[in-house]
Structures are given as structure tokens and as C-alpha cells.
Amino acid sequence: MILAVDKVSKSFGPQVLYRGATFQVNAGESWALVGPNGAGKTTLLRIILGLEGADEGTVTLAKNSTIGYLEQEAELSEEASALEEVLASAKEVRALEARLAELEATMAEATGEALDAAMASYGPARDRFEVLGGYELESRARAILAGLGFPVADFDKRARDFSGGWQMRIALAKLLLSHPDVLLLDEPTNHLDLESVQWFEGYLASYEGAVLIVSHDRSFMDACVDHVAALENRRLQTYTGNYSSYLAQRESNLEQLRAKRAAQERDIAHMQVFVDRFRYKPTKAKQVQERVRRIEAIKEELVVLPEKHARPHFDFPKPPRTGDMVVELDGVRAAYGEHVVYDDLSLTLYRGDRVALVGPNGAGKSTLLKLAAKKLAPAAGSVTWGKSVTGSYYAQHQLEELGRQNTVLAEIDAVAPGWSTPDERRLLGAFLFSGDDIEKSVSVLSGGERARLALAKMLVAAHPLLLLDEPTNHLDIDSVDVLEHALVNFPGTILLISHDEHLVRAMANKIVDVRDGEARVYEGDYDYYLWKRAQLLAAEAGVDEASHATAAKGKAVPAASREKVPRRTHDVAQAPSDEERDRKRAEHRARQAQKKRLAAARKRLAEVERTLEPAHARERELTDLLADPDLYQDQERFAKVLEDYEHLKAELPALEEEWLTLTELLEEQQR
Q: From CA 270, how far away is CA 273, in angstroms rounded?
């Protein structure tokens, strides 16, 4: 055990987040902490870190263990380079390095007892330095920065000069280099591209410590985690397996709970019919009391089904039809100062294209998106939109453009002229703003809520071209599902940048790989792109294509063949006698006959119950009719009702007696 959460409960006033939350994380395990928006995932991370107290329960960390947390805001020094900033995070190693240098200087000058003391201290310090990987520290830091997408030329660039997203990568690199025993990661992929996410997946797969992740990226969790802790319905339930396995297990568990609840309700209903029928019959008093007790016992153990969470969906307004050509970039040149991103770039998007831009960070994906959106003018060449094309552009900076003084509803109302309030509420509800949420001030919204509001604003107008730069950042899984559903059903043209592999797989029918100043088009989905790119890499390297294709999907094939399992041997038992065989055959025939009788009884009981329920309903209906004075004014109708009533009164006792006999027979067999 490296981390144990034991019977933790947390409430905010009358709102209960969870009660009795319990799970244990061991070294080498990777856990995902999942749950709907507002379930308390981040609160639980803060409780584990000791930043917030629990109402009840305890959090225990193994002795001498360290814990690291990736915060959403990076704190960087003013003057250090990216590499220096990362190296500084390995505090113990750097302190040991300074200590070793000090001891070496002492040993070079000291004599006698001072020399002996320095030499005695030097050995253990050097051993500890080696154990912590001190001699490989800089090479590890460089490898981590490169894996997270930093070009080597940027290692010496001042950390403060990077954009906010790149500063978050530096913060992640610092955390990884410090190598704590427990890694707590809150949305770690938000500022990574697909290639960096794939590198990060491999890094976490071999991480020796324990990992606890909060993420909306389903593919990332599938690749990284082997346990799931789910916060649902004010409880914490643990599952073994990745995120997809958790979904399957949860649905299976729900089906079992629903089946058990239905069986309990049927048992109560059946026994209640008996109680109501024979409550005042002295000869049945004992059976009635027994069933009353059993009804109460079942009610005490009645399965409580989880609350159903609303799963809203939103469809884009149907855009006007465009011409076949939607966006054309012809001979485009784009540069920032002396840095040339594209030179003579040509690319055409057609109606119905759902394009995902992929490639390493810094290759120019966002620049290409801005060019296509006409948010950035090319230095040379042209960008042309086709007939009837208008576009909606979404990028992270739009979160800062929200009116902080507005309410959520007012922010939508400002961009939705002609929309009714119910239509605006429906749109906001699709992005999980409901009830009093729409009256919240924008200034108090969380990052995820602001991202959802910015997306909702973008979807008001019916534009046939959508240009989206990392739209899933800060969204929870429910919100990503809403967006994914809307994009999959959108009839226009989409140009998307996203690190969310699940979204890319669901949406894209064309991939554009951006790297080295070029944009190579792959006419197929994301799996086709991985396969085709693997072929190209294999051809360039002159190695086997199949092994590269497998590696591209992150599934390494073991080189060693599987060891054959020796065939298990069995002791030979003594052959049974003829008399023993005859006895066993007779017992088998008796069991089969009993099974057939019980099956027939169950079938007949189901038929009787199907007849009894409408018969009782018809009896109540006829009783009400006979109590109506108006019936007696119509002699013909009265005669018919009376005939039906008499026939039913004669039929019901026989059915009820048969139901009682069959029920008692089956109950006896179950005891």
C-alpha cells in the first residue's frame, strides 16, 4: 500500500458529495478518478493532498513516500531557462550534487580527521546520488522535455517567455523529473498534442510509483489506467481495468441491480395479492402473516437504483448548403518574424470534409487553422472561401473574451438575436447549464464552465464551416460527449485540432499531418492515417511494416514466443460398478423429471399471473359499474355487466387457488 483513502465523507452544507469513500492504491498501479461534473473529484484530490479536510475518514500515505500534484496554474521562476526550471525541481538530487562538490573540495585540501570525516560522508552521499539517478538527471530532463514536444532549440529559452500552454508543459516536466511516489494529475493532457499524449502514455505505463488521474480523455485513460474509482450517487465504487472496462462493468452491474429490483418488486406484488385476498380468512391467517413479514423484509433490503443523470444532446442548426469547394489555400506563405512556418502551402477542403490536423506541437497546426479561418493573413498566396461559406472559429483565447459582468443567459442572449428564452435555455442545457446556473455571473464560472459557454456561443449561428482549436480543453466527459454528438451529426465542414484521440476517431474522415512546413493529406480516418504513416516510416527506415504499424498504435508485440504450458495429468479413478451406474442413471432421470415439473409449474404460474392481473382489474371495473345508479336505467347493458360479473366471480377463485398452489410448490422447492 502506498496510498489509502478510508471511509472519507465530504459535504458542503446540505449537499453531500460522498460518504464512506474507500480505495487503496499500490505502487505500480494507475487509477482514474471519474464521475459527473460536480461529483467532487478535485475536492477528493485536495483532501488527499491535505489542502482540504474531510468530514469523516482518513487518508494514509506510506512512510517516507512523496506525493506530487500537477496544478492548473504553473509557477515558474523569472529568469531560468526551460531546462534549468525542470532541473531545479529535482531538489534532493541538486542538494546532493552540491554536497558532493563541497565534500570533494574538502577532500582535496583537508588532512587528518577532517579528511576522514569528509571521506566517510562522501560514500553514502554518492550512493544516494546514484540511486536517485543524479548522473543521468540532465539527460532525463532533456528526454522528458523532448517527449512533451519541446524542440531542442527551445531548451535554453527563458521559461517565462513561453505561452501559458507551454508553461504548463514545463510544470508537468518538473513533476515527472521529480518522480514522486504518488502522482496526482488533474487533466494532464489539456496542453498536449496527440504525439505528446502518446509519449506520455508510454511514460506512465512504465512508471514505478502510483498514479491517480482525473481526465476527460477516454483514449488516454484506456491506455494508461488499470483501476477506476468512480464517484457516483454520493458513493465511491472501484473497478479493475481501464476506462472502457469500467463502462462495461458499470452497465453490467446496473443491469443486475435493475433485475434484482424488478424481482423484489414482483415478489412484493405477488405476496400482496395473496395478503389482500386472504387477509380476513381464518384458515389462511398463518400464511398471510408469514407473507406480511416477508414483504417487510424485502422492503428493508430493496435495491436502491442509482440516480439517472441527464444526458443532454445538442444538434447544430442546419447550415446553408455551400459549393463543393469550401476553403482553398493556394501558395500560402506564413511567418513570424524570421521564423517561416509555411512557404508555398496549398490545401483544399471540400463540402462534408471532417478534417483533423495532427502533428507535433510547434509544427504550425494552429497557424494553419487561423489561416483557414481568415484570422491570420498570409504573407503570400491566397486563402479563398467557397460559395455561401461562413465560419465559426473557436480557440482558447475566446474564454477571455466573455463578458465577465454578464450572466450566462445574458452572454448567450447577446449573440442570439431572434432566439426565444426557451431556445436559449435548451442550448445552455445541452452544455450542462441548468436551473439557477444560467443566472450565474460569468466572473464566478470555473474554467470548464467558461469553455462550455464559449462553445455554446459559437454554436448559435448556423455556419457551414467550423474551425476548432482544442475545443475539449477544460470540459468534463459529459460535455465532451455533447460536443462529439453534435460534431458527428453536423452536416457541414469541420477543421479540428484536438489531443482527444476518442473525439478524432469518432469525427474525422480525413487527416492532415502538419510537420516540417508541409501539410500531407490522408484520405481516411485516424486508424487509416496511423497505418499509412507507419508504412511510410517503415519504408524510410527499411524495416518490417507490420512491426511499425503495431508500434504506431502503441501495442508492442513481444519478441519472445509464449512458453508452452505442460499438459496436466490426472489420476485414473476406479471404474464404477454396474449397480452404481444404474443408481446414478435413476437419480439423473428423477432430477430431470423434477426439473420438467418445476419448469411446467413456472410456465403455468406466469400464465395464471398474466390472467389474474387483468381479471382483478376487470372485477374492480364491474364493481364500480354496478355501484352506478345510471346503469340500471339501461336494462340490456345492466344484464350484460351482471353476466360478466357473475362469470368473473366464478372464474377468479379457481385461478387464485391455482396461483396459491403453484406459488407454494415453487417456494417449497427454493427452501
A: 5
